[in-house]
Design a protein that fits this description.
The complex is a heterodimer of chains A (494) and B (634). Chain A is mainly alpha-helical. Chain A has 20 helices and two strands. A two-stranded antiparallel sheet of chain A has the order 1-2. With 634 residues, chain B is mainly α. Chain B is globular and about 105 Å long. Chain B has a two-stranded antiparallel ribbon with strand order 1-2. The chains are: A mainly alpha (494), B mainly alpha (634). At the A-B interface, strand 1, helix 5, helix 6, helix 11 and helix 13 of A face strand 1, helix 6, helix 7, helix 26 and helix 28 of B.
């Protein structure tokens, strides 16, 4: 039983080894290896979900905990609580879809698919690791394949974008490493669960907590990203190949928010409470600023990238509220944003593959020329702007509820954030109006519609977006107990 | 009685089935929504029979489900069947079926009609769910889905520019109100930890301040959806959609949802500070007047009706402001029937004349006797002439205002009644009167039949006034106050007489009037400058802000990032130069380190891909070495 998480995390590494052995002349077989590995991985996650004890979703399950570097107290410690579980589902599902979306990649295909698989190891591991060193290794591991995916298979400014992505996030995580070491020196352990217990017991002084919180904040905030540390994101998104964009927005951004929930809140509760109003302020700025800048974009991918800044603001608002409702909302936005933004990038990829442009002014009338593609883009847009009965609404609504009832977030911040819902409708519908509606433009008129492969790969996303939107419990049933466990340290009404 | 759930579920399933179909398959299955709506209508009638004789506030049927648990607290949604919801069910299903039948004729040449019918089904489902909701959350969710359907139908002919723009305008303007709605719900949740009507509408002690905030939020939402001043600007533009959709959504049902919302949540409004209800009243008066006055100067038949809808919704708000939901809901019902009738009639006329401009019409009474007769029934009802339904509901409103002592509102309402009769007379004279010959032909039977049904309902439903009040709220209504009834009739007939004198007998030269009061006419032509101001201030302002922030993001924030990188690069290069020229060889170890950094940094500036790859590989190697060392240690 306890080997299951290890298999889920490292199975893609076996795929990396296999694809590495494929000669370049037989490069076409790499995608079959990747898709098989990812399908098996997802099936294992499905089995994990089926055997997960929802009543005990607040504690880590399927735990594996053995010594790794005994002298330094570093352990190979992994486990999945409700939050980890839903993030793992997101990561493996999008991972599989990313492989299918890359079906036409022929340029250095074995390396490309090896990078996707390596990325998967890091993404899966981050959401399961319960030891700081392990967490850090997975965290940094993610950077490398993503760097190559952008730098080798990206657009025209790929060099700039990839190096910016790499150095920016690396700079952030260096501070995180400092935080980890500081905690180790103060407590003598790298174990996240043990540290959370110490955090709950109030062992760490507030002064010390504040400094460590700042270090972690810098690491996580770059990844989320929180305004004003967000400018690596539009560049990385625009230059990345479709699959990498989907994973970047769908999974990688969630790592930052996950870090706040798994590490900052439980281990440094006093500092978290002190910082919460400021984080809420930055969140509200991210929401409105991201939405306003998204409105001005002329490139579809850039528009979606800035919309991510805005949506991730709702995640941070929910986290900063320090309420169960808000935190449920934060995780719901994380999950939903992964589905919806992943889908948006994939649909834009479908358009770009055919039209070879993402300029909004050159695209118009998709629903006439390519009704299926246009319909999918419109669907994803409505999910993104938070239409009820689709997943986007759940989290943003709960995030607002939580931030209003929060004792640490001033009401005016909630009001400002609520206008983000209006602005989201503005930039999304303005995009739909220009791209989906109207008469087909020259570049679009003669294009073939989405293929069966493309529609099938998006179907699970559509199904989940609707399921979560209609039946909130299907997601929150796993999340709520875990959220309560995280917030237990703050008392009933933080 | 779980079958009540089928009433919204059947149309929703229809949509779910039709949405993934191909265009051709959808056209083949275009009758499916009608079938579903017909079953819903029958079920609604059955539900009505169960609730009869009504008069009780306790739901006849109530079912809830837990949507999710938040911090262990169940967040439940559910449906309930009480007199108000069953009344709304009947309105929605009757008008819905009529519009579906009518649309089969109206849309039969359209290539994409299948999508139109599917969206109409989704709309009906959302509206039916909204009126069944037993809590504010489900109500809000249905509310937003209706907004989506409204958007899709307004923009149905999106190859043209006007419908596209009208669609986005409608969605965004109503969403301005919904921001308030959402905040109101957040306040409600923070205080009551539930959205259930059974708790929050039945004496939950919010306290005045909290109740005021909630009520304002709900009112804001209602103003957007029900097109109240100053959020009314989207409704006239929404007429760019297919006319039958306008009849259902933008006349009879969705726009009335705001009235329904305020009527439902009146207990919260009553807990709030008294000025909140007064604000409802004032907004109602302003809206009723604005709509009526602007209807006067329109030449587009649909826009006249749209402004009239705005005005009538204002009428309902006036009486809500007086705290009487019964009169508001009664007018909501009669208005739903006669206004959808008018819109369907307008659709036939537009179909027949290929124009929406009333100046290009005339003399249609000869060619289109059925349309004329039914349209006139609707127009008389709207004008408040006995015995048509509008007379009764308007009389209810006037009586309520009079007896509750809202005398100013009473006189305004009377004035608007005369105004309404006047502009409807103008419309009817232009369209049916005069002697312009027309080649127009009468509409198809599937279009006339629903109009005949709606006209019949309009003719008789007013007499149910007493029964309605008892059924809905268990109130015994005072018998008809003859003085008020006669005063109301006098104002209505006065308006009609004036209209006949001006437009039929040309008693006043309207063109000279326009010259005589140029400023007034210009203001009316520009729709009282609402659109102009919104466009300049809000839309223009946001566009400028957005463009400015995008520039700020590129130059200042991203500039800082790039600047930092360049600074580091320059520092490292300087150190390296100093190293080789001054202390070369002195500290080889350090020198090598800095040289590495400097060289690397310079190459970053030069932007060579291989360098970056090497850099990344170096970091990867470092990590690998680190883990190997640590592992060996183990």
């Amino acid at each position: 039983m306890s080997a299951l998480l290890t298999v889920i995390v490292f199975l893609p590494l076996a795929g990396v080894a296999i694809t590495a052995l494929i000669p370049r002349s037989r490069g076409g077989s790499a995608k079959w290896v990747a898709v098989t590995v990812m399908a098996v991985d997802l099936a294992l996650v499905a089995w994990l979900v089926a055997n997960f004890d929802r009543a005990r979703a607040g504690v880590a399950q399927f735990v594996v905990n053995v010594p790794w570097v005994a002298q330094a107290g570093i352990r190979y410690h992994m486990g999945a609580d409700g939050i980890s579980l839903v993030m793992l589902v997101l990561s493996t599902l999008l991972g599989l879809i990313a492989v299918v979306a890359s079906w036409k990649v022929t340029d250095r295909a074995p390396t490309y698919f090896a990078m996707l698989l390596l990325l998967q190891v890091g993404m899966n591991g981050v959401f399961l690791a319960l030891d700081f060193v392990l967490f850090y290794v997975f965290w940094e591991l993610v950077l490398v394949p993503m760097f190559f995916l952008i730098g080798m298979w990206g657009g025209t400014r790929r060099e700039y974008a990839s190096i910016k992505f790499f150095l920016y996030t690396l700079a952030g995580s260096v501070f995180m490493l400092v935080g980890i070491i500081a905690l180790y020196l103060a407590t003598g352990t790298f174990d996240i669960t043990a540290l959370a217990a110490k955090g709950a017991a109030g062992v760490l002084g507030i002064g010390f907590q504040n400094w460590v919180f700042l270090a972690f904040f810098l690491g996580f905030a770059v990844k989320v990203p929180i305004w004003p540390l967000h400018t690596w994101l539009p560049d990385a998104h625009v230059e990345a190949p479709t699959a990498a964009s989907a994973l970047l927005a769908g999974v990688l951004l969630k790592m930052g928010a996950y870090g706040f929930i798994r590490i900052s809140l439980p281990i440094l509760p006093a500092a978290a409470r002190a910082w919460a109003p400021w984080i809420a302020l930055l969140a509200a700025i991210s929401i409105v600023y991201g939405a306003a800048v998204a409105f001005a974009q002329t490139d579809l991918k850039k528009l979606i990238a800035y919309s991510s800044v805005s949506h991730m603001g709702f995640v941070m608002l929910g986290i900063a509220s320090l309420t169960t409702v808000g935190l449920n909302g934060a995780v719901a936005v994380m999950f939903s944003h992964g589905l919806v933004t992943g889908m948006l990038f994939l649909v834009v990829g479908i358009v770009y593959d055919r039209a070879h442009t993402r300029e909004i002014s050159e695209l118009s009338g998709l629903s006439v020329a390519m009704p299926v593609t246009g319909g999918l883009l419109a669907f994803a847009s409505f999910a993104s702007l938070g239409l009820p009965a689709l997943s986007g609404f759940v989290g943003e609504f709960l995030s607002l509820l939580g931030s209003w009832e929060s004792r640490v977030v001033p009401h005016w911040i909630t009001v400002v954030a609520a206008f983000g819902v209006l602005l989201a409708a503005a930039y999304m519908l303005w995009m739909v109006l220009r791209v989906v509606l109207g008469k087909p433009s020259e570049k679009v008129a003669a294009l073939p519609d989405a293929t069966l492969r493309e529609v099938v790969m998006l179907t699970p996303l559509i199904a989940l977006i609707v399921t979560v939107g209609v039946w909130w419990g299907s997601l929150l049933g796993y999340v709520d107990p875990a959220v309560r466990a995280v917030l237990a340290v703050f008392g009933r009404a933080a | 009685m779980a079958w009540v759930l089928l009433i919204p579920l059947l149309p929703a399933l229809t949509f779910a089935v039709m949405a993934p179909m191909s265009r051709r398959a959808r056209t083949t299955w275009r009758w499916l929504p009608l079938a579903a709506m017909s079953v819903s209508l029958v079920l609604s009638l059955l539900a009505f029979a169960r609730v009869w004789p009504g008069g009780s506030q306790t739901p006849t049927f109530h079912a809830t489900t837990v949507l999710a648990r938040l911090g262990g607290v169940p967040l439940s949604v559910g449906i309930q069947l009480d007199p108000v919801s069953v009344m709304m069910l009947l309105v929605v299903t009757i008008v819905g079926v009529c519009v579906q039948v009518y649309s089969l004729g109206y849309m039969h040449r359209d290539e994409r009609q299948g999508w139109y019918f599917a969206v109409l089904a989704l709309f009906s489902a959302a509206m039916l769910l909204l009126v069944l909701a037993d809590d504010f959350l489900l109500l809000y969710m249905s509310w937003e889905v209706m907004g989506l359907c409204s958007y899709l139908l307004i923009g149905f002919w999106h190859e043209q520019e006007a419908p596209r723009l009208a669609a986005i305008k409608a969605f965004l303007t109503t969403r301005v109100g919904d921001v308030g709605f959402a905040i109101g719900l957040a306040v409600m949740w923070a205080s009551a930890r539930t959205f259930d009507f059974s708790v929050v509408l039945h004496g939950f002690p919010f306290g005045t301040a909290i109740a005021t905030m909630i009520a304002l939020g709900l009112l804001f939402g209602a103003m957007g959806k029900s097109a109240q001043v100053p959020l009314h600007v989207w409704l006239p533009d929404a007429m760019a959609g297919p006319t039958p959709a306008s009849a259902l959504i933008h006349a009879a049902t969705m726009v009335a949802a705001g009235v329904y919302l305020v009527a439902r949540s009146l207990p919260i409004f009553e807990q709030a500070a008294p000025w909140v209800l007064e604000a409802v009243l004032v907004i109602g008066i302003l809206t009723a007047l604005t709509g009526g006055v602007l209807a006067l100067v329109q030449y587009d038949i649909k826009k006249i009706l749209a402004y009239s809808t705005i005005s009538q919704l204002g009428y309902m708000f006036i009486v809500l402001g007086a705290g009487a939901e019964g009169a508001a809901l009664f007018h909501l019902m009669t208005h739903a029937f006669f206004k959808s009738l008018l819109f369907l009639g307008a659709g036939v006329i537009i179909h027949a004349t290929h124009t929406q401009d009333i100046r290009e019409m005339g003399g249609l009474r000869r060619a289109m006797p059925w349309t004329t007769a039914t349209f006139l029934v609707g127009a008389l009802a709207l004008s408040g002439v006995y015995p048509f339904s509008g007379f009764w509901s308007k009389d209810d409103i006037l009586t309520t205002l009079w007896t509750s002592g809202h005398l100013v509102a009473f006189w305004f309402a009377l004035g608007v009644a005369a105004l309404t009769a006047f502009y409807m007379t103008r419309l009817c004279v232009r369209v049916f009167g005069d002697n312009a010959c027309s080649l127009a032909r009468e509409g198809h039977n599937e279009m006339l039949a629903p109009m005949a049904l709606l006209a019949a309902i309009t003719a008789v439903v007013g007499f149910s006034s007493q029964t309605f009040a008892h059924f809905l709220l268990g109130e015994t209504q005072a018998p008809l106050n003859l003085t008020i009834a006669l005063t109301g009739t006098a104002f209505a007939l006065g308006g009609i007489a004036l209209g006949v004198w001006v437009y039929l007998f040309h008693g006043v030269d309207t063109d000279r009037l326009k010259v005589r009061v140029p400023y007034v006419y210009a203001a009316l032509q520009h729709k009282l400058y609402f659109d102009l101001v919104y466009d300049r201030v809000f839309v223009g302002g946001f566009r400028s802000l957005s463009a400015w922030l995008a520039g700020f993001d590129r130059t200042v924030i991203d500039g800082a990032v790039n600047g930092a990188a360049q600074l580091w690069s320059a520092t490292a290069t300087t150190l390296w130069r100093g190293d080789v020229t001054l202390i070369d060889g002195a500290v080889n170890g350090v020198g090598a380190l800095v040289r590495g950094a400097g060289a690397r940094a310079r190459e970053i500036e030069t932007g060579r891909l291989q360098t970056y790859q090497r850099l990344a590989l170096a970091v990867l190697l470092l990590l690998l070495v680190l883990s190997v060392v640590l592992l060996r240690g183990a």
